């Protein structure tokens, strides 16, 4: 009888060890997934500062054109002036901001779809 009790407790310990190993590995997987997702969002948020600087640079350039209109009523506007001002720093800030916004929206849609698939709960946007 004692031998049977030792064998049964050994099986319980083995089963408990396997269960703990499964929980640990799934916890590590979940933590890794959360870390990767968080890093992706933090990266996008950190890029916002540069986008806003580029947009402000473009707007300051637009003010240069507005001042030309104010100072010279005969100013002959050329659309290439706008393109030159927008691209003077090599970046179209408005397009950069739109692209980053779309990247945010795609990430959110993807994460919501993953959440819905994992939980079976429909998330309304």
- The assigned structural class equals mainly alpha
What is the H-and-E element order?
Answer: HHH
How far do the termini sit from each other?
62 Å
Number of helices: 3
Shape estimate: rod-shaped
Major sheet description: none
Task: Tell me the total number of β-strands.
Answer: 0
Residue-averaged pLDDT: 81
Indicate the low-confidence ranges by residue numbers.
Answer: 1-6
Strand content: under 5%
Rg computed from alpha carbons, rounded to a whole number of angstroms: 29 Å
* Fraction of helical residues: over 70%
Can you give a write-up of this model?
With 125 residues, the protein is mainly alpha-helical. The protein has a domain of 84 residues. The protein has three helices and no strands. Helix 1 crosses helix 2. It is rod-shaped and about 95 Å long. The N terminus is likely disordered.
Quick overview:
The chain is mainly α and 125 residues long. It contains three helices and no strands. It has a domain at 36-119.
Name the descriptors:
125 residues, mainly alpha, 3 helices, 84% helix
């Amino acid at each position: 009888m004692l031998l049977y009790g030792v064998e049964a407790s050994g099986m319980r310990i083995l089963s408990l060890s396997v269960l703990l190993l499964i929980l640990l590995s799934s916890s590590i997987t979940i933590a890794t997934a959360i870390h990767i997702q968080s890093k992706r969002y933090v990266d996008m948020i950190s890029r916002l500062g540069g986008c806003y600087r580029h947009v402000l640079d473009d707007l300051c350039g637009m003010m240069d054109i507005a001042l030309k209109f104010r100072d010279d009523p005969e100013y002959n506007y050329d659309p290439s002036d706008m393109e030159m001002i927008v691209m003077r720093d090599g970046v179209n800030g408005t397009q950069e901001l739109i692209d980053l916004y779309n990247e945010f929206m795609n990430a959110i849609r993807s994460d919501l779809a993953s959440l819905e698939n994992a939980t079976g709960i429909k998330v309304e946007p």
